[in-house]
Design brief:
Number of helices: 8
Shape: flat
Distance between the termini: 130 Å
Helix content: 40-55%
Order of helices and strands: HEEEEEEEEEEEEHHHHHHH
Largest sheet: 5 strands, mixed
Number of strands: 12
């Protein structure tokens, strides 16, 4: 008999049970007690003066097997531990004395079971009885509206008498198409090739048009300033691409300088291009600090570089025309 009593005492100490009914332990707040099927209920449990515990969320149970846990979380606020459990029901009915059991392990490795406050949850159908009746009434079709289907008379069509007409029409269309093709080919041979001249802006004009609208201001945000620098860089690359080096758009600064030196581009201009592009890259990619005067200086330098590149381009065109005079 003594062994049985001792065993019961040990069992009671190992598995402590406490409830939110007692104000000294904690309290339970439920946001709603009447829901439709599938609607969520949040059961918030506040435990007073409890710290350094572990919540065994995987072992949380509901008093009714009709309920389902959607989510849960625990957090501290002031001196209280909050245990929030979100549940729902997928079957209508009245669930009396509904509560949640939450296992907690304290710092002494003891397992405690917290019971939320018991309450009655009312779960109703998604549709009311009146809504169901209206749907059933709408689904019922009066017998006088049901009419027997009329028999569809068979459609008989004999294509045989029209076969020769169809063949003649197809042949006539083919002759017309072939005739049009032959006439166009003959006309092109007689007139010779026609060259359509498309008016295209000069590369230097496009360069000036791009940088003309760029102006740096103290109020520019970093991203706006970097965008303007990118436009300057792309404008100069476009001028080089159109007048001297195809592919300048897609090359890095190092690749571009290597390509310019490879075609024996003017060494002074090459060094200037390398210097200004490295400065812009440091600002755009390395986030180097820059002031307004420096930005306006870069704008002036790129304008001058564009002019010098265009002058070199005109000079090379003049030399080519001198070396290869027209007959």
């Amino acid at each position: 008999m003594k062994k049985t009593i001792i065993s019961l005492i040990i069992l009671f100490i190992s598995f402590n049970l406490f409830s939110a009914e007692g104000n000294d332990v904690g309290k339970t707040t439920i946001d709603k007690t009447s829901i439709k099927i599938g609607e969520k209920i949040t059961i918030s449990n506040e435990l007073f003066n409890i710290k350094d515990v572990k919540i065994l969320w995987k072992d949380v149970t509901l008093s009714s097997d009709k309920g389902e846990i959607i989510s849960y979380k625990d957090y501290y606020k002031a001196n209280s531990l909050f245990l929030d459990v979100v549940v729902t029901f997928f079957e209508a009915g009245e669930y009396d004395n509904f509560y949640v059991t939450i296992p907690i392990v304290n710092s002494d490795n003891e397992t405690l079971y917290f019971y939320s406050k018991e309450t009655t949850i009312s779960v109703i159908e998604l549709l009311t009885a009146e809504e169901k009746a209206n749907i059933e009434k709408a689904e019922q079709i009066p017998p006088d509206l049901l009419k027997p289907e009329k028999d569809i008379a068979p459609f008989n069509f004999n294509i045989k008498p029209y076969i020769w007409i169809i063949v003649l029409v197809i042949a006539l269309i083919a002759i017309i198409i072939i005739s049009i093709i032959l006439i166009r080919k003959f006309s092109k041979r007689k007139k010779g090739p026609v060259i359509e001249k498309v008016k295209k802006s000069e590369p230097y004009e496009e360069f000036l048009s791009t940088i003309r609208g760029i102006e740096f201001n103290d109020s520019d945000e970093r991203i706006v300033m970097e965008t303007k620098l990118s436009l300057l860089s792309e404008a100069l690359r476009g001028l080089i691409n159109e007048e001297f080096l195809s592919g300048a758009y897609s090359e890095t600064t190092r690749e571009l300088i290597y390509s310019l030196r490879k075609i024996n581009f003017d060494a002074t201009l090459t060094n200037e291009i390398n210097r200004i592009f490295n400065k812009l890259d440091m600002i755009k990619f390395a986030k180097a600090h820059v002031i307004l005067d420096e930005l306006n200086g870069y704008l002036s330098e790129i304008k001058k570089l564009g002019l010098d590149i265009n002058d070199l381009y005109k000079q090379s065109i003049a030399e080519n025309q001198a070396n290869f005079p027209k007959n």
